[in-house]
Amino acid sequence: MKLNQTNKLASFFLALYTLILVYCAFESATTYGGGDSWLHFQIARYAFHHPELFLDQWGKPLYTLLAFLPSQLGFIGIKLFNIGCALLTAYLAFRMAKNQYSHYQWLVVVFVLSVPIYFVTLFSGLTESVFALCIMSSVYLFHIYRVRWACVVISFLPFIRSEGFLFLPLFALLCIYYKRWSALPLLSLGFLVFTFIGFYFKGTWNWVFGTNFYLTKPTNYGHGTWYHFFASHYLTFGWALSAFLVIAIISFVFRFKKNPRNRELHIQVVLLLGGLVVYFAAHSYFWYKGIFGSAGLDRVMAGVGPCIGYTAFCGFQFVVKQKIMERITAKIALSAMVLLVFIMPRLVYSFPFRLTGIEQLEMQAVEYLKKNNLEHYPIYFQDPFFPAMLKKDPFDEKISKNLYQHACKSYKPDAIILWDSHLCPRESMLPISVLEMHEVELLQRFAAPDDYNQNDTMEVRIYLTH
Questions:
Q1: CA dist., res. 324 & res. 330, Å (int)
Q2: How many CA atoms lie within 13 A of 178 on its CB side?
Q3: What whole-number percentage of the chain has pLDDT above 90?
């Protein structure tokens, strides 16, 4: 296949995914990731008005800084920002694939962008897409012999997601192996930069770890089995990519036996597969032990979505080179597998996204406030969906107050309390019985069968304080 034809095919699929992703972004009535997605958006959007948010450890400082401008366009701006990050990630993967393989390099775009959990996370305000771009950028820089720059870029990864610290030893390992001693200190650059920034504004040298939400505050999300993420691989990887991943691991063993000094193989195994394995193992352990705020959410795997896609692509390339592929039946079977990779996100998830059951109740509550001219009242809330829909600054305590911080303290009069059965009892420690001990008046109640258990009821209540 000629190089220019390869470029055209890669461009075609990048354009195709752009159309699909942008369409889904505009047509989605809500977001993937729920309250976390809305909150990341709100932190970025209102950081200018509350500069301390730029160093908020839950929001992640570097993500907030990068998402600040796109978020000014509203939630669609943050979704388009994440989509742009994904397309750039796929482009870098293609550039690397052109140098590492001689056939069907353009298909890496499909493999990277069709990882189910990665695909749907792009319609959100979550940090995973920027995290994945930082990883792929660093790997690509290492691949083109810009090792120092690779170390500089990856050093900032922990300030997009805390798990970024897990990737630093992998880059250090290859730097040591290739005796790139001058690059090693650069792996600490991101930490040093943000430590000094934090010291200037917060007055403490230990703010990076000392204010980390998951290190300093216990969470009560429970715990699960060590194989939880293995069992849910069809939601994160998809069956087709999982099969190619297994083939890739087998192929790496054969390739190591044939040429253990292959630099590109080192990049694929240590930085891409290695990053995937370390990240996967860490989250499996966190959920098994119930530590570091782990809730066993499948979406965390979106952060290594491109690692999944590129490693699976390596497995595809191994299959292509086998003699059995001379048979027409083998070619048809392989084509069917690639087609399955392409459509897997649609088989696993339903999108564009529609309002969930609890969000429908919350939207009814928002419409009730607007209809009765109550939307200008100060609000107490737990779900960031409410201030997002009411277009209120959730960090301005004059107009809104998060119940997570407020808990059971007294409420100022003539304010609206938006209580939801999904988050308030768990995150705010505020069951109805406790709330109604205060001087509050129930204005309206919205209820429906629970999305996950039809025998239970989910509800949203609107209270007026006195």
A1: 7
A2: 22
A3: 67
450 vs 356: CA distance, rounded Å = 10
> What is the rounded CA–CA span in Å between residue 282 and residue 274?
12
Name the pairing type of β-strands 416-420 and 379-381.
parallel
Interatomic CA distance for residues 47 and 67, integer angstroms:
10
In angstroms, the CA 167 to CA 190 distance is 13
CA distance 261 to 410: 67
Round the average pLDDT of the chain to a whole number and report it: 90
User: Could you give the C-alpha distances from 106 to 101, 113, 145, 322, in angstroms and in order?
Assistant: 10, 12, 22, 20
Give pLDDT, residue 217: 58
Report d(CA 462, CA 458) in Å as an integer.
14
From residue 35, alpha-carbon distances to 32, 301, 358, 377, 427 in Å are 9, 18, 12, 22, 12
Task: Report the distance separating Cα 247 and Cα 269, nearest Å.
Answer: 13
Q: Are 263 and 322 in contact (CB under 8 A)?
A: no
Report the C-alpha gap between 300 and 321 in whole angstroms. Answer: 33
Give the model confidence (pLDDT) of 142-170 as tens digits. Answer: 999 999 999 999 999 999 999 999 999 99
Extract the tokens encoding 208: 């990076």
Element (H, E) at 459: strand 457-465
Which residue type sits at 138? S
Region of residue 59 (left: phi > 0; alpha: psi -120 to 50; beta: else)? alpha
pLDDT tens digits, residue range 186-214? 999 999 999 999 888 887 888 888 777 66
Q: Could you read off the pLDDT of 337-386 as tens digits, one per residue? A: 999 999 999 888 888 889 988 999 999 999 999 999 999 999 999 999 99
Euclidean distance between CA atoms 34 and 84, whole angstroms: 21
Tokens for 358, please give them: 């609890």
Q: Using CA atoms, how far apart are residues 238 and 244, in angstroms rounded to an integer? A: 10
pLDDT value at 216 more than 60 = no
Asked if 310 and 89 count as a contact pair (C-beta separation under 8 A), the reply is no
Q: Concatenate the DSSP letters of all residues of 117-159 into one string.
A: HHHHHTTSS-SHHHHHHHHHHHHHHHHTT-HHHHHHHHHTGGG
How far, CA to CA in Å, does 259 sit from each of 73, 111, 187?
Answer: 51, 26, 29
Other Cβ atoms less than 10 A from the Cβ of 398: the count is: 8
